Each structure stands twice: as structure tokens, then as C-alpha cells.
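hi! just following up on the protien thing from before. the input was this:
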Amino acid sequence: MARITAAEAEKRMGEYLKNKTGRHRSIPPVNSMIQTMIRENTVHCFNVGPWGERVNMGSFGYYFIPPCEVGAPMEWVKLPLPKVPAGVYVPDVWEEGEKRVTEPRKEYAAFRPLPGLMLEPIPTDMDVCSWNQQDEGRYFANEMLGVGIGHDTNTSWIRKGCFVAAGKTPTEAELAAARAELMKFMAEQVLDADRAWAAGPQRAEAIIRPEIHHVCAEWMNLKDRAWLRGTDPQAQAECPSCGENVKSVAMTCKSCGYILDKKKYEQAKKDGLFV
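and the predicted 3d structure came back as:
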């Protein structure tokens, strides 16, 4: 066997790796029965609460929990599949529908639908992949929401208003149950904030978080809580026109447009910030 120099070996390895990047790995076909199960058993999740999150689902990547806020999608539309040879699996592609949230406390936000079976291509060597059929879509959805073995029920997204629906659209019973869980969670957070505020400023500063406790109080229309102003870095005040909580440094009310700081408003007009 002829020997080669280290430089030649390095050159040959570089050429090999350049041509063998794995971009052209072959993937085995998926039989029609499995494809039917994937497409006809899609899983639909919804959120009636004001919080959203990007959830890391390992090798499947990040999945987004949409907050129920104005403009959030209430439906998703499946796009037509391209024509492909038999056995070739092309995942469903979804886009947001036209129906949007306008009243967050009365409506819901829809997650991007999940397939009935979670398939993942796994490289077996430089040229070939195989399909890893991991979980059913419903099990995957519950894992995403923090439900099941190994999850703490106190941190589950179910408590914040999320749920996996039985069908493609949520029923009134499912929405009522989700809102009941949400209100229970919010009431607990408001009570925690009340107790922390009563215990003194140090306790309040350590416990009360605007992104949790303030949101809960405002969602429940509990605008009388002293800690809504006392624990906000930019303390809040009440708009004299509509009663909405606004930042004390705000020039106008974000809800009704009432001029809160006339001096700042006139200066902004002079500076040409608006007509």
C-alpha cells in the first residue's frame, strides 16, 4: 500500500468532506397509511391568556405559544400540497387565516397546528436518512404545554389559559374550562402580590413582577391595587378620561388619546413629531 504525505492526506480529506456534506442524503418513502394518519389527525391548541412563549422542543426546534392579544390568529389555513411521487412525504404547510383576535378577554389565539404524528429525519450515514417516528402529535402538544410525567403542574401552560382541543376548533366548554384555569391562576398571582405589598417594600420588590402580576391585575380590571404603581419602574397613573392605567411619563393615553402632559405635547408639535 502506497504511503502519502500528511499534506496529501489532508487535501484528500478536505475534498471528501466538501463533496460529502449530507445535503443530498436520500430519505426513505413514507407509506400512505402513515401519511393519512399524519394529515387527518392534526392537533389544534389554543390560548385564552395574555402570555406567549417560544418553547424549545429539542431536535424539533422551537415552537411558539401565541398570546391572546389583538391581532393574534384565531385560525390557520393549510396550503395545497405540491405534486410529488408516491411515498414522498411533504409536511403540511400552514399560514395564518384572516380571522383575528379583536377582544382578547372574549376570544382565543390559535397555535400553528401540529401533525398527527411527529416525524423527524435522522441521518444514519453521510448519504442516507431514516425517519424517526417519535410521538403522536397530541402527546407532543402536551409536552410543549408542560403536561404529563416529569412536568410540574404549577408551571404548566394549562394554568395560563392554554389547552389542546379535541377538534379543529375549540368548543364553548373547552374555552370556559381554559378561562376558569386562567382566572384561578391570575387570582393566585394577585393574592401573592397583595401579601408581598403588605409585607413591606423589600418583599414587594422581590416578589412582584409587572410582566406577571401587573398583567393579571389589569386583565381582571383590578386597577385599585397600590402595587400597580408602587412596583413599576415607570410608575403608572390612571387616565382621567378613560380610567386606563398609563405610564406616568406618558404624553398621551394609549387607549383614548387623552393629552396627559400638555407641555410635552405642545413641544412635540413644535418639533414636528406629529401634526
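The chain has a mean pLDDT of 87.
The longest strand covers residues 129-136.
cheers
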